[in-house]
From TrEMBL:
<dbReference type="Pfam" id="PF03232">
    <property type="entry name" value="COQ7"/>
</dbReference>
<comment type="subunit">
    <text>Component of a multi-subunit COQ enzyme complex, composed of at least COQ3, COQ4, COQ5, COQ6, COQ7 and COQ9. Interacts with ADCK4 and COQ6. Interacts with COQ9.</text>
</comment>
<comment type="pathway">
    <text>Cofactor biosynthesis; ubiquinone biosynthesis.</text>
</comment>
<comment type="function">
    <text>Catalyzes the hydroxylation of 2-polyprenyl-3-methyl-6-methoxy-1,4-benzoquinol (DMQH2) during ubiquinone biosynthesis. Has also a structural role in the COQ enzyme complex, stabilizing other COQ polypeptides. Involved in lifespan determination in a ubiquinone-independent manner.</text>
</comment>
<feature type="binding site">
    <location>
        <position position="96"/>
    </location>
    <ligand>
        <name>Fe cation 2</name>
    </ligand>
</feature>
<dbReference type="GO" id="GO:0008682">
    <property type="term" value="F:3-demethoxyubiquinol 3-hydroxylase activity"/>
</dbReference>
<feature type="binding site">
    <location>
        <position position="173"/>
    </location>
    <ligand>
        <name>Fe cation 2</name>
    </ligand>
</feature>
<dbReference type="GO" id="GO:0008340">
    <property type="term" value="P:determination of adult lifespan"/>
</dbReference>
<dbReference type="GO" id="GO:0010468">
    <property type="term" value="P:regulation of gene expression"/>
</dbReference>
<keyword id="KW-0472">Membrane</keyword>
<keyword id="KW-0831">Ubiquinone biosynthesis</keyword>
<feature type="binding site">
    <location>
        <position position="66"/>
    </location>
    <ligand>
        <name>Fe cation 1</name>
    </ligand>
</feature>
<comment type="similarity">
    <text>Belongs to the COQ7 family.</text>
</comment>
<protein>
    <recommendedName>
        <fullName>5-demethoxyubiquinone hydroxylase, mitochondrial</fullName>
        <ecNumber>1.14.99.60</ecNumber>
    </recommendedName>
</protein>
<dbReference type="GO" id="GO:0005634">
    <property type="term" value="C:nucleus"/>
</dbReference>
<keyword id="KW-0408">Iron</keyword>
<dbReference type="InterPro" id="IPR011566">
    <property type="entry name" value="Ubq_synth_Coq7"/>
</dbReference>
Amino acid sequence: MQRAAKCTLRQDLSRAFCPSSVRNGRAVKRVNSSVLCRRYSILPPPHDEEEKAMLDSMLRVDHAGEYGANRIYAGQMAVLGRTQTGPLIQYMWDQEKMHLERFNEILGEHRVHYWACTALLGKEGAMACTVAVEESISEHYNSQTRTLMEANPERYTELLQLIKEFRDDEIEHHDTGLEHDTESVPGYLILKTVIQVGCKAAIYISQRI
């Protein structure tokens, strides 16, 4: 009974987070509530310590990226939440919340902090930050997909599905950022480089925790 109530709550949250609508000319997909409600036994039992270390490292990196993205969107909403850009940032943040929740249940929380100052640059600065972060995260999801496909795609079917789903969301966020004049931000390339260096540093640390 308690399990059913929890699933019902998550279905309500998924409808609130990802309503079926069109934003910026792009169809918004609903969260698959059946996926949200299942238990997260997506990892096969590792054959040996080497495989365990590989999977642990991948999931720590993914969690760190999603945690960082959540902190960035939280900071942006604090500054831009009441502006015209607020609903779009909220929509992308809601997807990141779902991603982070999934990794929290799979792995447990690893604290990798980012800051809110990019939102002080205004809408374009916030979107420039989004482009930089989502580009870094999607690149790592692609790298992990290649690694798992080369290792044994049938063994990692569910993990691959999860990574590909989240990668597609990150690419959508990246493209949305580009649609909002990010490249017009003064010092855009410098800002993007600094943010991506921070992402790589966070990923490096998370791989070695």
